Amino acid sequence: MRPQSLDMSNINRVPRVTADFWLIKLMAVTMGETAADYLAVNLGLGLTATSLIMSVVLVLTLGLQFAQKRYVPWAYWLAVVLISIVGTLITDNLTDNLGVPLETSTVVFTMALVTAFALWYASERTLSIHSIYTTRREAFYWLAILFTFALGTAAGDLVAERFEFGYFTTALLFAAVIAVIAFGYYAFKLNAVAAFWLAYIFTRPAGASVGDLLAQPIEYGGLGLGTVVTSVLFLAVILVTVTYMMFSYEPEVAATPEGRAFPR
What would you measure as the largest C-alpha separation in the chain, in angstroms? Predict the structure, then answer.
């Protein structure tokens, strides 16, 4: 039961940045890559039909998320998983159906993300995830996340496939970038908001590369586990982590514009 004295007008609607936050985020982006492939290819729905269906499901889920007016773990992470799938499908449609080069997609989504951040900051004077307590801020938040997923898919595929680095090397490359960001945050006091969003962006191509590494056939540079096994594996981790979050969650009052980018 919600405490009667709790003022919901300034309760943060997104989770704290903790170790389990980054764990489940990595699992979600990895599953987004493999689940999108499973739905479009293995189930035979096709890229276009899958994109339309999942976009409708995402809109309904975001409507449910916005209605909460606070952070509810299952609703929030369901939205993240679905937006990960849709972000993947957007890039796949541009590449496979429209023939847009991955280089172009990467540049376009980078510009779209920068524009979203610029509009968000111009409107709210902060990009902090510790002060998402209005519908407008939450709308900017989810728009930015959608662009990070689409950008991450394009960048990951560009490095792994077009530049022929392979999935394993690409995963290591982006993991190294995330490690550098974390080191800059802890050792050199890199701005927390910048550190968070940079890490958030790069976990997408890192996770997508891990997903492809596990799911893709051996002849294509993967381990051949398939999209079903890979998706179920990461879904299980997500469910366990979300269940833990539901029992450990405490409402967070919106904080200062900075906050923490990584757990301490």
Answer: 60
Q: Where are the domains of the chain?
A: 8-248
Beta bridge partners of 52: none
Q: What is the pLDDT of residues 123-145, one digit of tens each?
A: 999 999 999 999 999 999 999 99
**pLDDT band at residue 4 under the 50/70/90 scheme:** very low
Distance of alpha carbon 101 from alpha carbon 121, whole angstroms: 30
Compute the distance between CA of residue 159 and CA of residue 94 in angstroms, rounded to an integer: 17
For 201-246, how does the pLDDT look when each residue is reduced to its tens digit (9 = 90+)?
999 899 888 888 898 888 888 899 988 888 888 889 999 999 988 8
Compute and round to an integer the Cα radius of gyration of the chain. 18
- Contacting residues for 54 by C-beta, under 8 A, at least 6 apart: 36, 39, 82, 85, 86, 89
Tokens at 185, concatenated: 């945050």
Phi first, then psi: give them for residue 256, nearest 5 degrees.
-70, 165
Instruction: Give the N- to C-terminal CA distance of the chain in Å, as an integer.
Output: 30
Structure token digits, residue 110: 């980078």
Would you say the pTM of this structure is higher than 0.85?
yes
What phi, psi does 6 have (nearest 5°)? Answer: -80, 120
